[in-house]
Structure formats: structure tokens, C-alpha cells
Amino acid sequence: MRGLNPGGVWAIYRYELSRTVRTIWQSVATPVITTALYFVVFGGAIGSRIHEVGGVSYGAFIVPGLIMLSLLTQSLSNASIGIYFPKFTGTIFEILSAPLSPVEAVAAYVGAAATKSIVIGLIILATATLFVEVRIDHPFWMVAFLILTSVAFSLLGFVIGVWAKTFEQLAVIPSLVVTPLTFLGGAFYSIDMLPPFWRTVSLFNPVVYLVSGFRWSFLSQGDVSVATSLGFTIAFIVVSLAILTWIFRTGWRLKP
Amino acid sequence: MPPIIDCAAVTKRYANGHLALDAVDLAIDKGEIFALLGPNGAGKTTLIGVVCGTVSMTSGAVRVAGFDIQRDFRAARFAIGLVPQEIALDIFATVWGTVSFSRRLFGRPPDPAYLERLLRDLSLWEKRNSRIVELSGGMKRRVMIAKALSHQPEVLFLDEPTAGVDVNLRRDMWALVRRLRDDGVTVILTTHYIEEAEEMADRVGVIDKGRVLLVEDKKALMRKLGKRRLTLVLTRPLPALPDSLAGWPIALEDGGRRLAYSFDASARDTGAPTLLRRLAEAGVDFADLETTASSLEDIFVDLVGRAA
Ligand SMILES: Nc1ncnc2c1ncn2[C@@H]1O[C@H](COP(=O)(O)OP(=O)(O)OP(=O)(O)O)[C@@H](O)[C@H]1O
Ligand SMILES: [Mg+2]
Description:
Number of strands of chain A: 2
Low-confidence stretches of chain B: none
Largest sheet of chain B: 6 strands, mixed
Mean pLDDT of chain A: 85
Helix content of chain B: 25-40%
CATH superfamily of the largest domain in chain B: P-loop containing nucleotide triphosphate hydrolases
Helix content of chain A: over 70%
Largest interface: A-B, 28 and 31 residues
Radius of gyration of chain A: 19 Å
Strand content of chain A: under 5%
Shape of chain B: elongated
Mean pLDDT of chain B: 87
Radius of gyration of chain B: 25 Å
Number of helices of chain B: 10
Structural class of chain A: mainly alpha
Distance between the termini of chain A: 27 Å
Bound molecules: adenosine-5'-triphosphate, magnesium ion
Strand order of the largest sheet of chain B: 6-7-8-3-9-10
Distance between the termini of chain B: 35 Å
Number of domains of chain A: 1
Order of helices and strands of chain B: EEEHEEHEHHHEHEHEEHEEEHEH
Shape of chain A: globular
Oligomer: heterodimer
Strand order of the largest sheet of chain A: 1-2
Order of helices and strands of chain A: HHEEHHHHHHHH
CATH architecture of the largest domain in chain B: 3-Layer(aba) Sandwich
Largest sheet of chain A: 2 strands, antiparallel
Structural class of chain B: alpha/beta
């Protein structure tokens, strides 16, 4: 055996997804219920005061941000737990001693985490159509952003899973960094609505670029240009891949 | 025939600075059962980890089935099955699920008939649909072995296969290892139990403090060191040996009160009767006598003690 090992990649991919299937109801019910709650709270309570943002109803305006919020947190937690757990239980020995290249191992874990996020993103989108009329101006780009963002944050999640030594560390980045950045990143408002100072500060928030591109694919409007958003997302993936290459080259926190 | 595993100057220094392997050279022949003996912390698990890819090597080179473990890592790892020292399993998976997962991980096409035979051999067939969490410790250990053999490796590493295992299961393991050898699989096992090495191995390697102290054919080793010692407790201290025993491997101990004679237990003529006759002729009386055999245990303690 000298060539690639697609069978091995597929085995890990399937195994990772089967973890989700074991908890299918939890996996599906959670995003459906949270989305419904967001619509009741944001769409109903706030939306009754803010009628329109940039010419669309507030309910329709928050759909991309809502999906993005789940996409980011789900990708991070799926991918980080996916690799942290084998490290924690010791079953990682099997992956390390298998005839798999680092690229194949990452493809399997990240692919599975991203797949799960994408499915959840689509479930949220479907749920949203029950509450508001959802308009998708650029379906191709909508799907492209959905996939790229899921991959980007699954890669980051994988890095976090490799880095984490405790369950606390595993939770700290998603809850202390990513969720706040998402709330402050224009998921539920346009950053144009902010005072100029905070608008400038927001431009340092990477999530702004992700949400903006995604919202553009729905509504043809965003806080920054779509090219900037796309470039940012791809740069994010490239940086994560560079970190991962280094991790595998040095065996950092994977092998003693 | 080239060795199936060839370690050249393998050195491992852990991040904390501990030198766990110090330029280890070791060649394992195809088809043999090799026992790696050594006290706690000797470096056995580290050496296995380096060969299997779970521990990164500081320097040196390893070839498995002729393939360099770094350059041709796929082919090298494909040849290896690893049963680590600690049991590590996904407790929610089923026996069948986790064993077939291992096979797929190595890129092998499905072969339910082979897996069935494997599980039957390991007395796990009845448990194939049980989840790991429902199994006893000994069953889990057998699941680990089934996983390691699921892709039909040429070399099997068993890191302390019988630690914490009851007598019956230990016998089963030994039987399994012999069957594997009959099928041409090379087996490398580590153990603290000397009798296990004595019972199972074709060759024995002794490792301590990251250095291989000795590698020898077990039979030759037992022969070479399988000496017996005859000790006579003399009734009167003897200042010197009688002339008729000059040149014999005899030592006077305890101020001449004891006389110790070493001989090869497997030789046809041990010399013991002649010794006793000549002592009688010289008028040396003794009150008691005892003989002791040296085992691998003595050899081991002796070697490790000397290196310390
Ligand atoms: N991850 C690690 N970091 C630092 N030192 C380590 C690490 N793993 C093992 N060591 C040290 O390396 C030495 C060799 O350990 P190893 O596990 O290879 O021994 P062993 O021969 O398998 O022992 P045992 O019979 O107890 O299983 C020990 O001194 C151990 O403390
Ligand atoms: Mg060990």
C-alpha cells in the first residue's frame, strides 16, 4: 500500500457522522428550537420596533446572521470535540498508527464536522421559512459561503481540539471569543446602525466579514464588499491549514 | 532474509528532557516471537510507539518490512498491528463496529468471513453486537487484539498483553500468539513476567534505561546462563582446594566453610559425581548440599543490576 487511503478517510468520516446520528434528535431539535426562539424574541419583540433594515423586514434580515451564528459555533464544537475526544480517551493511537497522511486525517475530521454544520445550517434555513419569507438572491454564493465558512471554522475547531488539554479549554474559545464576536459582528443588526467609532471597531471583528458576505448572498446587501468577505474567508482557511501543517510536522500535542 | 523490523540508533528524548531511548539498535526477524523484557520505565512502550508512529523519534531510523517509517509511512504502518499497553476504546461502539472500523481505517476491503473467524478465535463472536461499555476488562483487551489483527498485519505488537489478565485468558493469549506465528505473523511482546518470555519467545531482548543490554536466542541464553550451582556445606573449613580438583570451576566461600561448583545442567557429564568422589578421596566431609538453577529471572536481575 503506497498510494492514498480513501477507505481510511471514509471510515473516519462515517464514524464521526455516526456519532451525530446516535444523538440525532438532539442534533436536529436543538437548532430548530433555538431558531424558533430567536424569531420569537428578535423577530417578534425587537422586530415590532425595528420594522425594516435596508429595505427588508427585520425577520428576513436576521436569517443569515442566525445561520452564521450556528455555523460558527457548531463547526468549532464538532471539530474540536472530534479530535479532542480520541486524545482524551487514548483512541487516537489508532489514527496515529494508521496508514493515513495528516492531510487525509484532517480531511476526514474537518469534512465530517463541516458536513454536520452545513446540514444544521440548512435545517435552520428551512425553519426560518416557517416564520418569515426568506429571499435568496444568489443561491450559488449562499451555498459557497455556507461551505467555506463551515470548513474554515471546522479547521479552527480542529486546531482548538489539538491544543486543548482540558474540557474547559475546549469550551473557552467558542463561548468566550466566537459567540461574543458573532453577536457584535452584525449578526442581528447592520453595522451601519452603529455610531462611527463602533463601526470602525467592528471592522476588526473577523465575523463581520463572514456575516456580511453571507447576508449579501441572501439580500444583495452587506457591510463590506462581497469580494472582501470571500477573500477573508479564504485567508482564514489558508492560515488554519498552515497551523495544521505545522502541528502535524512537529507532532505538537498529538504525539509525545 | 532482511529483518522485518530494523531499528538503527533510535533515540527518543521527551519534551521534559528525559532520554527514554538511547541509540537503540534492534533487528527482529520475520516470523519470530520476540520478547522485550525490562523493568518499569525501561523504554519498551516508547520503542513500540516510535516504530508504530504514535511517538515521534528524536533521531535514528526504523524500517518495517523494508519500508522507512517516515518516508514510506503508509507501507510501513500497513504491515503493523498494535495492541497498546492501555485499553483505549470508544465505549459506545459495538464490538463488530469497532473491529470493522479498524479494518477500514487501514484501507482494507470488507471481509466479514475473516472478521468472524477472528472474533471466534478470540471468543468474542457471541459479544459481537454488545457495546464496549458492557464488556469485562478481559473482553476489552481481546477487542483491542481483534482490532489490531483486523487488517491482517505482518507484525503484531503486544505491549504487556497479559498484565492484569487471569490465568485462563493468559493461556488463551499464548495459544493465540503461537497460532499467529504458525500463520507467519511476527509477534513482538513486552512483558514483566519472565516465565512468559521463557514460555513464548524465540528470542529475548533485555532493555533498561533506554538501552538494549542483550538480545539472544532464548534457548542459547538459557543454555549459556542455564547453569546449576552445587553448594556443599563443609563440616570443617577448608583452607585450600585439594590438588585433585585443581582447575575445576570451584570456589570456596564463607571462609572455606562452603564450596560452590557451577556446571552446565544440560551437559551429559555434569562432573558432579566425580567431584563428590574426589572430595571423599581427599577426606573432605560435608554436612549438607543444595543445587539451584538460574532462570531468565536471575539473568535479568543480574543484567539490570550490573548496568545500574
Ligand atoms: N510522554 C512522556 N513524557 C515524558 N516522559 C515520558 C513520557 N512517556 C514516557 N516517559 C518516560 O520515558 C521512560 C520510558 O517509558 P516507557 O513507557 O517507554 O517505559 P516502559 O518500559 O514501557 O515501562 P512499563 O513497563 O512501566 O510500561 C520512563 O522513564 C517514562 O517516565
Ligand atoms: Mg510500557
